Amino acid sequence: MAGLSLQCGDCGTLLKSVEEAQEHAELTKHANFVESTEAVLNLVCSNCGKPCRSKTESDLHTKRTGHTEFVDKTSEAAKPISLEAPKPKDDVEMEEVGDGSSQQEEMVVPEVNQQLLAELAEMGFPHERSIRALHSSGNISSEAAVNWIVEHENDPDIDQLPLVPVSSKQPLAPKQSLTPEEIKQKQQELKERARKKKEEEEKRMEREREKERIRVGRELLEAKRMEEENERKRILALRKAEKEEEQRARERIRQKLEEDKAERRRKLGLSPEEPSAVKPSAPPVEEKKTLQSFLPVRPATKTEQMRECLRTLKQDHKDDDAKVKTAFNTLLTFAKNVATNPNEEKFRKIRLTNANFQDRVGKLKGGIEFLELCGFEKIEGGEFLYLRREKVDIPVLQSAGSELNNAINNPFFGVL
């Protein structure tokens, strides 16, 4: 198959002729060219008719003008390439002079409608650009020239005067000049059209912003729903733990009552209860399971550690309910004050040598440990308990308050 193009062996560019290959070599210093059967791509824009020789060029045209429809005319424009080197320009002129057949035709600037040219000048367009636009748009109207300028504003030769052969230069048909009122009306129409286009763009942007606001709102609602769901699960888990604690306390009380009853009968010298009166004991498996549930386990979370401190405090002073209740209420006051006023230093600093504090909390086992779990630290040689502002953890303080409320209001808390 005959070659349809020349391909640069250095960069892969396809060229239509030897002249283009020579120009490419001068610009890039590439010298390795081979004949190729692949035709140079010819994509013609359906809107403005601009030819594009590569996909990259068509993408740039689309980005610049917004035109997306292209017609592939590669096969129509493809023709066998001639590998004969072009003759120098001077030789061609000498041959033409020697033969006497023809001379190089003179190139001149095409004539354009002066009235339309003046209108474009009033709009602020350069003289050379206005002439090229009117010539390319057929001298139809200033509106067509403006549209052509918008579509080709990035062309490298847009501000260069166009040149046409003298033979093709034809006088323009006389066109009726526009009155100042008509010129003003046209300018007003162009401004109105530009204003409408701007309004449409603003409406489109507003719709996009509204969609974004709706999306952000949905995300916030979803986040709030998930937070509420997690809080609901936490409360359910806390209530379940309280019920289990209450059930275990009841079971321990029942066992203690049974043991006390058996001890009293033994001291009185009475015989054990009749087998028929004794309640059936739980199966061995269940009893083993119950005993295992009461084995001492190291608390895993900070909340469980707080609960264990409060349980220890109550068990060590189970004969003095008033002192235990006073300690729980004092600890609850400390946690509540810090959570409500985290910036007040007076609520975050406790003197350990204070007599009231020692009598209510300090001397009781588990009281200071509970405050340390809330974030308090000993400072100045152990004279003060201090909670730094940056270490104030509101969720931890809220958990401490929940545990204290449960310990105060649950009559079975810490029993046995």
Describe the 3D structure.
The chain has 416 residues and is mainly α. The chain contains 14 helices and 11 strands. 55% of the residues lie in helices and 7% in strands. The strands form 4 sheets. A 3-stranded antiparallel beta sheet has the order 2-1-3. The protein is elongated. Residues 85-106, 170-212, 256-289 are annotated as: Disordered. This is UBA domain-containing protein. It holds the Pfam family UBA_7. InterPro entries: PUB-like_dom_sf, PUB_domain, UBA, UBA-like_sf, Znf-C2H2_OTU1-like_C, Znf_C2H2_type.
Shape: elongated
Order of helices and strands: EEHEEEHEHHEHHHEHHHHEHHEEH
Binned, the helix content reads: 55-70%
- Low confidence ranges: 274-278, 285-297
* Proportion in β-strands: 5-15%
How many alpha or pi helices? 14
Class from secondary-structure proportions: mainly alpha
Q: Specify Rg, calculated over alpha carbons.
A: 48 Å
Largest sheet geometry: 3 strands, antiparallel
Largest sheet strand order: 2-1-3
The N- to C-terminal Cα distance equals: 103 Å
**Mean of residue pLDDT?**
80
Organism: Castilleja foliolosa
Biased composition (Basic and acidic residues): 181-212
Region (Disordered): 85-106, 170-212, 256-289
Domain UBA: 111-152
What would you say about this model in short?
With 416 residues, the protein is mainly alpha-helical. The chain contains 14 helices and 11 strands.
Main attributes of the structure:
416 residues, mainly alpha, 3-stranded antiparallel sheet, 11 strands, elongated
